[in-house]
Amino acid sequence: MLNLIQADLYKLGKSKAIKVLFAITTLSAALMAVMAYLIPQGKIKGSMTGIGFMFSDVNMISILGAVIAGVFICGDFDNKTIHDAIANGCSRGAVIVSKAAVFCCAITIILMPYVLITGIALGTGSEFSMGSLAVGFLNILTTESSSTLSAAAIWKLLIVIMTLIIVYLAQLSICVPLAFLLKKPVLVVAIYYVFTIFCAQLTGLGDSYPVIDHIFDWTPYGGSYTFVVLDTVPGDIIQAIATSLVFIVVMVAITYMAFRKSEIK
């Protein structure tokens, strides 16, 4: 399995697709920060917050994350890489775990621009705001802006960032069974994007129907998990990490159960 992971990581490093996606998230993160900086100064109209949110991490990663699954998992069905690995004696479980591990690495890579730009922006001590539209790294940027970060706060910020990355990995882990079962990049991207919209609508009903909140708390799509900031209590951070890791394991297990008996053509 380690050989499979090393081979996939090598292929990931040479891939033009990951470089293009990294460039897209770098540009998007920069535009998000610039707009969040200019809006409170009145240099950009408040009505532009919708466009600023379009470049935010939560929106971009829901699209690009599914694209990565389509390119690096579905693509390996098209070029027979997965077929060859199984034919050469690799177990289907090893193939699934290796693909899931490299998929998580790829997601982390394209999230790095948001991590770095958010950290740099907070270091300036400037004010950032995007109105009420703030989730994920955009929420960290707007919530913690204009505050002085002590050494302890910087360490807490790193923990918060790590937690948010894990939550995103868990949310996108549903793309792994989709990619192995559907084997079509377009279907994976479309289904996952519709799924995220559906989840957003359901979480919005949480105030009226508390049972929905309780159900989502057992998944990384829980409303509070993408809103972690420095003031988030350690118990909530631990819950977000634990829930996300368990969800990833469940998605890998579902993929294995569905893929172990499927025919590879």
In a few lines, what is going on in this structure?
73% of the residues lie in helices and 0% in strands. The protein contains twelve helices and no strands. The mean pLDDT is 85.
Give the helix/strand layout.
Layout: H1 2-14, H2 16-38, H3 49-54, H4 57-78, H5 81-87, H6 92-123, H7 136-144, H8 151-172, H9 175-182, H10 185-203, H11 210-216, H12 234-259
Largest sheet: none
What is the helix/strand order? HHHHHHHHHHHH
If you compute it from the alpha carbons, what radius of gyration comes out, rounded to the nearest whole angstrom? 19 Å
How much of the sequence lies in strands comes to: under 5%
Would you write up a description of this structure?
With 265 residues, the protein is mainly α. Helices cover 73% and strands 0% of the residues. It has twelve helices and no strands. Helix 4 (57-78) packs antiparallel against helix 6 (92-123), helix 9 (175-182) runs antiparallel to helix 10 (185-203) and helix 9 (175-182) runs parallel beside helix 12 (234-259). It is globular. The two termini are 22 Å apart. The mean pLDDT is 85.
Notable features of this structure?
265 residues, mainly alpha
